[in-house]
Amino acid sequence: MDKSLISNLKNFTILYIEDEEGIRTNITEILKDLFKETYIAKNAKEGFSLYEKNRPDLIITDIKMPNESGIDLIKKIRKNDSKVRVIITSAHTDLEYMLEATELHLIKYIVKPLTEAKLTEALEAFVKSFDNTRIYILQENWLFDESKSLIQSPDEEFRLTKKENLFLKLLIQKNRIISYEEMENIIWNEDIMTPNAMRLFIKNFRKKLPIDALKNVQGTGYRLVL
């Protein structure tokens, strides 16, 4: 498995639902080495409980399980959550199953057996699904969600102000020094950027970033060091 893929997956959490014990044990061993947190369930009821408690980034679920199918479970989740990524595994190649699953906006539909090659392909698709969203990896286990104005660290989450969100987006996308003039024109816009306001802004902003991630280039501006 590609090293960059492994590094990216360490930023995410996963819920794996599989009723067959042998398959569940084998795949769980792989997933625990790849993801920041791995939650395991043996049926849809357990899976839904873990989903509500932990809100994982990715769900991998089997279709055919006792009492409630994986498709029924994802339909229930989709009523209130359109963003969680979903991969379905199934022994079925039946067109009806596939069409029903397609309506659930899946990352991948995997026909069993779930080999390492199939799993790798599905996980690559999962990571790539964030390419068109506004989520950025700052460092290992540090994520910036622009749409939510949120930084997620290994230990806590930080809410960003409107100015902080705009500044971080600018630093990431430009990938260079952002000058004081740019900060005044773009971040402060019509507000007055006094030296005291700038110092307080930077002081508070640094508390929400990885240590030493924001570097001051004297007399010029700021840049990210990640």
UniProtKB/TrEMBL annotation:
GO terms for biological process: regulation of DNA-templated transcription. It holds the Pfam family Trans_reg_C. CDD domains: REC_YesN-like (cd17536), trans_reg_C (cd00383). Keywords: DNA-binding, Phosphoprotein, Transcription, Transcription regulation, Two-component regulatory system. GO terms for cellular component: cytosol; protein-DNA complex. The keyword DNA-binding applies. SUPFAM superfamilies: C-terminal effector domain of the bipartite response regulators, CheY-like. It comes from the Bacteria. Residues 133-226 form the OmpR/PhoB-type domain. The modification 4-aspartylphosphate is found at D62. Residues 133-226 bind DNA. Coiled coil: none annotated. InterPro entries: CheY-like_superfamily, OmpR/PhoB-type_DNA-bd, Sig_transdc_resp-reg_C-effctor, Sig_transdc_resp-reg_receiver, WalR-like, WH-like_DNA-bd_sf. GO terms for molecular function: phosphorelay response regulator activity; transcription cis-regulatory region binding. Residues 13-127 form the Response regulatory domain. The keyword DNA-binding applies. This is DNA-binding response regulator. It comes from Halarcobacter mediterraneus. The lineage of its organism: Bacteria, Pseudomonadati, Campylobacterota, Epsilonproteobacteria, Campylobacterales.
